[in-house]
Amino acid sequence: MDFSNELIERLKKARVVSALTGAGVSAESGVPTFRDPGGIWEKFRPEQLANFEAFMSDPDFVWSWYQHRREIMREVMPNPGHYALVEFEKIFSEFNLITQNIDNLHYRAGSKRVTELHGNIERNYCVSCKTFYNDIDVNEKKVLLCKKCGSIIRPDVVWFGEILPRKELIFAEDCAKNSNVFFSIGTSAEVYPAAMLPTMAKQSGAYVVEINIRPTVMSMDVDEVLQGKSGEILSELVNNLKKS
Length: 244
Ligand code: OAD
Ligand code: ZN
Known about the structure:
α8 (105-109) links the parallel β2 (94-99) and β3. The protein starts with a helix and ends with a helix. The mean pLDDT is 95. Helices cover 39% and strands 19% of the residues. The protein has helices at residues 5-13, 24-27, 40-43, 46-49, 52-57, 59-75, 80-91, 105-109, 166-178, 196-203, 230-243; strands at 16-21, 94-99, 114-116, 119-126, 132-134, 153-157, 181-185, 207-212, 224-227. It has eleven helices and nine strands. It has two domains: 1-31 and 78-118 and 162-244, TPP-binding domain (Rossmann fold, 3-Layer(aba) Sandwich); 32-75 and 124-157, SIR2/SIRT2 'Small Domain', CATH 3.30.1600. It is elongated and about 60 Å long. It is of the alpha/beta class. α7 (80-91) packs parallel to α11 (230-243) and α9 packs parallel to α10 (196-203). The chain has a six-stranded parallel sheet with strand order 3-2-1-7-8-9, with helices on both faces. Strands 5-4-6 form a three-stranded antiparallel sheet, covered by helices on one side. Bound molecules: 2'-O-acetyl adenosine-5-diphosphoribose and zinc ion. Residues 22-24, 27-28, 33-36, 39, 50, 100, 118, 158, 186-188, 190-191, 211-214, 216, 229-230 line the site of 2'-O-acetyl adenosine-5-diphosphoribose. Zinc ion (ZN) is lined by residues 126, 128-129, 131, 146, 148-149, 151.
């Protein structure tokens, strides 16, 4: 992979670097993406599953699907892309990692600070009293009840029609506005408000870099496109930065 001199120079001088990641970053770990061929939304309608009304009308069905995804996500391992982003924390004076992924793989790889815009599948909370329940046994196929109030517990993930966690979104917007270099990695950049972050960064003067195996709706608007697998490109970039 040829990185432009401009990118390397900008990264060397950068005070703040941020990255937005999507499902593509975990593809090399074996977690299916949403919109690629064979992806999750080809098999299921989002309204059936990732939706509060669907959950309330058939909690066991939605719960068992999330248990299945939890199982997949626990079995896989972080890939070189996740590990390269851990290195970014050491290389840059300030590095902000913002993710749309709920799979917990950035933390498992060792990233210390991750802003999770769509929640984390390892957390659950009671729909009534909001008590959190983590470390759930994946063999519990029927929805679990809150020990305090008896209501059902749901995964702490953002569903269609729900708003993103406020603190995380505000922080992500601040990152977009204040970064010298902003990466958009392994995301189709089609789901808002996360998808507006690279544009916001660009408007605020950041050098915006997209890493993806194929062009996206955003490719024409960024400063540099690195086409290929994020695990490979990010590892090469880390090696390049460590050498220079
Ligand atoms: P998508 O499935 O929409 O997009 C995945 C992107 O990753 C695509 O653009 C692929 O081309 C790219 N990709 C696949 N493999 C790759 C690889 N090895 N290296 C680099 N890129 C690769 O997933 P997201 O953009 O994350 O939201 O989707 C955003 C949101 O839509 C998700 O967080 C989820 C979903 O509905 C919620 O559940 C709220
Ligand atoms: Zn409760």
